[in-house]
Amino acid sequence: MSDFTSNFWSVYVTVITIGGILACVLLLWFSGKTKALTASDNTTGHVWDEDLREMNNPLPRWWVGLFIITVLFSLAYLFLYPGLGSYKGSLNWSQTGQFEREVEKGNEQTAPIYAAFSGMSTEQLAKDANAMAIGDRLFMNNCAQCHGSDARGSKGFPNLVDGDWLWGGSPAMIHETLVKGRVGVMPPMAAAVGTPDDVRNVAHYVLSLSGSPNDSVRANLGKPKFAVCAACHGADGKGNQALGAPNLTDNIWVSGAGVESHIVSMITNGKTNVMPAWADKFTPEQINVLTAYVWGLGGGQPGEQAPAAAAATR
Fold it and tell me: Does the 185-275 domain belong in CATH 1.10.760.10?
């Protein structure tokens, strides 16, 4: 899809590009046709340091030839490839298309490697040294930027080895997370909770759920107000994996340490976290291997199996 939001910019770029090439051609033509006023000794009359004179010789033919070749090359390139606004070129080439072709070629070359894992379950893959070595490289190249090279996460990015899962840690749920991605939304709740003092009270109640240091008086006052949060986090605060709502009782904090100011900020401002979908980047075989790698890091939970790795056919 074109980056231009209106036809004006496409026309503007086209005119500037073609105009620049034509201006170069005209400059070359005028340089060859126009005769400068010269002295009788074929100089322009310009003299520097008494004996350094500017000659009035024509442009060298090799230089003119190279200039013409450059202009012709530019016109041919603009005909074949994108360069004139929204015109895609006669070859219909694009960086995205070339990238996709290279990825497809790479997948075809690696298909025999993944074929060895055909039909293996997540547990079987997790015990296969070759599969885990591949999974480690996939993770390091694509997941470590957010979750860390040790998969222990950082502020705003979940720890994948501690057994605490926002959306579920079974093979099937990890597979679904990789394929579809996740969007976790904590809406601003201050207006629903009440006054700023009520928000502080709820924050202390949340701290009390995990045994974190808190003001017991404020916690008791905040408990009734927590009802507005129970729709997602549950009446007991243990969360809801179907909604990606964190467990507030385990003292594991995805978005920062459990302190009053942090929780007040979350209640007041809310937060949105996005885990991108990887289905378009990875093949099904790669996703199965990566699922097994993440599941086998130490925090994976038992449950329904992810789809078994199919035979590579690319």
Answer: yes
Is 182 exposed, middle or buried, given 0-12, 13-18 or 19+ CB atoms closer than 10 A? middle
Identical fold between 99-181+276-295 and 185-275: yes
By the 10 Å C-beta count (0-12 exposed, 13-18 middle, 19+ buried), 222 is classed as buried
| Average pLDDT value for residue range 37-65 | 79
Q: How far apart are CA 205 and CA 215, in angstroms?
A: 8
Which CA distances in Å does 266 have to 91, 201, 206, 216? Answer: 52, 14, 12, 20
In angstroms, rounded to a whole number, what is the distance separating the alpha carbons of residues 131 and 113? 9
The angle at the Cα of 224, spanning 221 to 229, to the nearest 5 degrees, equals 120
Q: What's the CA gap between 169 and 298, in Å, rounded?
A: 10
Q: How far apart are CA 54 and CA 47, in angstroms?
A: 7
Task: To the nearest 10°, report the CA torsion of 278, 279, 284, 290.
Answer: 10
**What is the per-residue pLDDT across 164-180, written as a single tens digit (0 to 9) for each?**
999 999 999 999 999 99
Token output for 110: 């690696």
Extents of the domains making up the chain = 7-80, 99-181+276-295, 185-275
Q: What is the pTM of this model?
A: 0.74
The fold adopted by the segment(s) 99-181+276-295 is Cytochrome Bc1 Complex; Chain D, domain 2 (1.10.760)
Q: How many helices (H) and strands (E) does the chain have?
A: 13, 4
Rg from Cα positions in the chain: 33
